[in-house]
Automatic annotation (TrEMBL), chains A, B:
Domain HTH arsR-type: start-end pairs: 6-102
One Pfam family named in its UniProt record: HTH_20
Record InterPro entries: ArsR-like_HTH, HTH_ArsR_DNA-bd_dom, WH-like_DNA-bd_sf, WH_DNA-bd_sf
SMART domains: HTH_ARSR
Domain of life: Bacteria
Name of protein: Helix-turn-helix domain-containing protein
Amino acid sequence: MRAPDHPQLSTVSLSDALGALADPTRRAVVRVLTDGREHLAGDFDLGVAQSTLSHHMKKLRQGGITHSRPDGTRCWVSLRPEFDERFPGLLRTVLGLDTEQARS
Amino acid sequence: MRAPDHPQLSTVSLSDALGALADPTRRAVVRVLTDGREHLAGDFDLGVAQSTLSHHMKKLRQGGITHSRPDGTRCWVSLRPEFDERFPGLLRTVLGLDTEQARS
DNA sequence: ATCGATGTTCGTCGATAATCGATGAACTGT
DNA sequence: ACAGTTCATCGATTATCGACGAACATCGAT
């Protein structure tokens, strides 16, 4: 697996971040990651094809939200801690609002 | 002018709201509206065609963020106060992060 | 060297987005 | 009645999105 691209946080726009968070599947990924740990990409079972999940992971990386660390044939995904320095409070606010009825 | 549609806030999803806020032109509109007053739709000069601005206004309405009140041939636009009850803190957070460099 | 597992990339599809100019609808003022 | 203003809508264009399967790359294990 080629090492994925992680943009500098300073080049990530608010539109990029909000665009990444506007999709419910991607928010579901982020919600899992808020435990602060790394998760295997393959452990997300969100009802989409593997290639689709890979696409969403790319969007999250480009939005500066997540970090992907290849490990052999697998891939560990985690939140980028610096994201909250770039956009303070955004993740907490968005995820806090992401209740059952608001989710779709 | 036909009266524009304003969705019930309970039917507006977080994805709708975030999608509306993900566009910099629309955030520029919202930023103006945070003075709490009504503004004429024609007073926004954001460098896009009139029809394009109308399109953005529609997105903001559909995201539950703004209210449009026709008045003769013109249209007064304002924030929907209930939006903050539906998504508490979202507008304040997003607009607070919308600095010059993050804007695009 | 081959195989299976895991993700990424590619090509494609239908749907939606953002933009524009042109047209239409509704109102105002003369 | 007519002309002008203001905004919405239409039609077209171009781009992007989310989805899929298929193909590809990389690695570990056999």
